[in-house]
Protein 1
Amino acid sequence: DQQVKQNSPSLSVQEGRISILNCDYTNSMFDYFLWYKKYPAEGPTFLISISSIKDKNEDGRFTVFLNKSAKHLSLHIVPSQPGDSAVYFCAASPPIIGGSNYKLTFGKGTLLTVNP
Amino acid sequence: NAGVTQTPKFQVLKTGQSMTLQCAQDMNHEYMSWYRQDPGMGLRLIHYSVGAGITDQGEVPNGYNVSRSTTEDFPLRLLSAAPSQTSVYFCASSSQRLRLAGPPTDTQYFGPGTRLTVL
């Protein structure tokens, strides 16, 4: 039973355009959501996160939107650059009072290709 | 500051062999975790630790043992390797952040991974 779903295995976008990566979750206990970026032969690196008390978080070219009622979040990259080409993982964390996000549930990932 | 280091980078085992994947971090993080990534799958949590001497199981713990004798090290042991354990293994660490005043500003740092093949 997959609790975090990324239904698009891949996405191809032209440089300068917007990239939108989607993620759905089924566990209503999740209260914190993260996006990780992964290049081949490297470990994932943290990109951006959002708490369930917010519906939007922005960091430079990256914006994450959260729709709690739909159990859906999306990552927008504007403008997309060739260096953004990587696998993007959506991850979710249950509430951990006083703790950190050490127990993450990941989606399968979406391969983003940004064409020059 | 090396961050999270993993050794070896690559390993080939025969079915039934044992080995230990090493993970170390120099950021004084309390929390450490092991994940595996299989083709077409996301990362799945194997075991995690919230501090020295404390470990717990994640989503896919069978066939793996862990221990946490120091804050810095969190080795993953395969006692009798099986082909189903062929995967890329990632170690991660993070520090404690209180959520009381909003979301943590820190999150998990991942190592570069160990690619394991079991024949």
Protein 2
Amino acid sequence: NAGVTQTPKFQVLKTGQSMTLQCAQDMNHNSMYWYRQDPGMGLRLIYYSASEGTTDKGEVPNGYNVSRLNKREFSLRLESAAPSQTSVYFCASSVGTVLYEQYFGPGTRLTVT
Amino acid sequence: TQLLEQSPQFLSIQEGENLTVYCNSSSVFSSLQWYRQEPGEGPVLLVTVVTGGEVKKLKRLTFQFGDARKDSSLHITAAQPGDTGLYLCAGEGDMRFGAGTRLTVKP
């Protein structure tokens, strides 16, 4: 089992460019999440999808959009990248949103210049 | 908004020493999770604590959930270099993580 996979692993964008981060899980999990991790700030939730067909905002949703394409895939889009979006992005999945373990992908390191 | 404060932010110790890190909040949590993250990887769950006053042991790691379910601690006995990493706590409900304690265990 691959678990949670993310692509790309690294990306450099110029301010104003757009891109989509891809995430897929093969564990038949219902819930999926996108976090960003910045030094000294832990993980901050951007968006999550409690189940296929639903998405909800997290703590820091501004500047991002998400799509739960199917049960396996949950993508994160930056429409117009800004230097403040330089971060490491993690996708995670879990059976459900209550009391369940989250399984994380390896992360995407994004730099916006 | 349920904020989680972790302390200390950084901790560097010698192999064989004991240590305790803390996760505190002004809010009550129905459960709390501890994760460990190694460089270049995503976090991995260590434990979930659910009941106030609960103590869980995972080899040399002891986790405690406060009686009021507002705080938790992680105690490591005889730390080893393999314990090096970022320790994160997360409160159930709004999927919010603390900033973490970065632990370095020197051989």
